[in-house]
Amino acid sequence: MDYTITALPGDGIGPEVVAEAIKVLHAVGARYGHTFTIREALIGGIAIDQTGTALPEATVAACQDCDAVLLGAVGGPKWDDPNAKVRPEQGLLGIRKALGLYANLRPVTLHPLLLDASPLRPERLVDVDLLVVRELTGGIYFGEKRREQDAQGEWASDLCVYTQAEVERIVRLAAGLARQRHGHLTLVDKANVLETSRLWRSIATRIMREEFSDLQYDWMLVDACAMHLLRRPSDFDVIVTENMFGDILTDEASMLAGSMGMLPSASLGSGKMGLYEPIHGSAPDIAGQGKANPLATILSTALLLRYSLGLEQEARAVEAAVSAVLEAGIVTGDIARGEQRAHSTVEVGSAVASRI
Ligand SMILES: NC(=O)c1ccc[n+]([C@@H]2O[C@H](COP(=O)([O-])OP(=O)(O)OC[C@H]3O[C@@H](n4cnc5c(N)ncnc54)[C@H](O)[C@@H]3O)[C@@H](O)[C@H]2O)c1
Ligand SMILES: CC(C)[C@H](C(=O)O)[C@@H](O)C(=O)O
Ligand SMILES: [Mg+2]
Predict the structure, then answer these.
(1) Is the Cβ atom of 306 under 6 angstroms away from ligand 1?
(2) Any catalytic annotation for residue 127?
(3) So what's the pLDDT on residue 338?
(4) 10-30 burial by CB neighbour count: b if 16+ within 10 A, else e?
(5) Which fold would CATH assign to domain 1-106+260-356?
(6) Is the pLDDT assigned to residue 10 strictly greater than 90?
(7) What is the domain partition of the chain in residue ranges?
(8) 11 CB less than 6 Å from ligand 1?
(9) pLDDT in tens, 297-345
């Protein structure tokens, strides 16, 4: 089959890791008889530099006319002025919204060989296999923003809004995924303080009671969850949570997997179309040095093959090749241990591609 993928490399290490993921996609194509046509488009800081906006219309059009989108990362110190009107991150938020990608799936698993790459004690990490389902197009990220000046000085506000429909669709999606996994859903919120969280909790409780009574369901306050993720991470199956809590908890959860460079993600909407990206950012501290771990982006292409293209066998081939590369000790510096040499981004990507 022929597939068209829009690649949005973005900034910093984005282009470095996306190049390796594309290399792996072509290896999958060669092995299984598919053609992946890759169309590159601009997003983020590079788009600001070249067009004045973080999300050019041509990029939205390209993403609307393809089978799936593969994204690297956006942002960096060059565009970090807090008073700037145009910011790279607007491109990322804009494309998620424009494509209606309301569900961000962030699976967290730990390869046994990376047990001591994590800062946590190995015995805490045995059997870690959890999925964070992050709501992606609502909440405080998208509410009205204000920055004003009055007689007392400056003030600012970010409004957090969730509608019943937004909560219902993400809870149903997360519960459906829990049913296919270990049957346990945890809603993470801040219902002791926030009205939006109380809305989430009442809607989720009703849906779970009426439609998913075969599942185990509980809830947890987000501050406690941050602690339990480190204390007893293997007790979690599926976590469903709002946009900002999901963002923060998954950076924390990446430490269970050994590195930010290991966590992939899939952003999905109501159809097959999806956007796939590592959870990490543009890592300006290591950009341009060949040090970035490309595995999170490569594992994101496995999710792309699985969810948008329905190619389960090919997705598993990518995941197996990643495991084989870890077993061969071909790893970047962020997860290298003991005597292991820190390999370059390109070496790791090529090693995965050659094992497809
Ligand atoms: N999806 C995205 O595009 C995305 C996500 C997060 C942050 N950002 C942006 O990225 C910029 C930098 O943010 P930050 O430094 O807070 O977060 P970051 O995720 O870019 O980096 C955090 C730390 O993790 C390391 N790291 C990240 N990815 C790695 C990889 N693949 N291999 C090895 N090490 C890796 C970095 O070197 C750094 O030390 C900001 O402009 C931010 O807005 C973008
Ligand atoms: C860069 C930023 C807007 C983004 C987010 O907060 O969603 C990032 O942190 C992520 O996790 O994808
Ligand atoms: Mg984040």
Answers:
(1) no
(2) no
(3) 85
(4) bbbbbbbbbbbbbbbbebbbe
(5) Isopropylmalate Dehydrogenase (3.40.718)
(6) yes
(7) 1-106+260-356, 119-256
(8) no
(9) 999 999 999 999 999 999 999 999 999 999 999 999 999 988 899 999 9
d(C-alpha 136, C-alpha 254), whole Å: 18
- Provide Rg for the chain, Cα atoms: 20
Ligand at minimal distance from the CA of 332 is 1
Is residue 190 a contact partner of residue 199, using CB atoms and an 8 Å limit?
no
What is the rounded distance in angstroms from the CA atom of residue 51 to the CA atom of residue 42? 9
Residues with CB under 6 Å of ligand 2 are 75, 89, 92-93, 247, 279, 281
- Alpha carbon distances (Å) from 222 to 53, 94, 140, 241: 35, 26, 15, 9
> Which residue type, as a one-letter code, is found at position 110?
L
Burial of 293 (0-12, 13-18, 19+ CB in 10 A): buried
CATH, range 119-256: 3.40.718.10
Q: HSE on the CB side for 269, CA within 13 Å?
A: 15
Question: pTM, whole model, 2 decimals?
Answer: 0.97
Cβ atoms of 275 and 95 within 8 Å: the answer is: yes
Contact 105, 178 (CB under 8 A): no
Residue closest via CA to ligand 1's atom 22 equals: 283
Protein residue whose Cα sits closest to atom 16 of ligand 1: 281
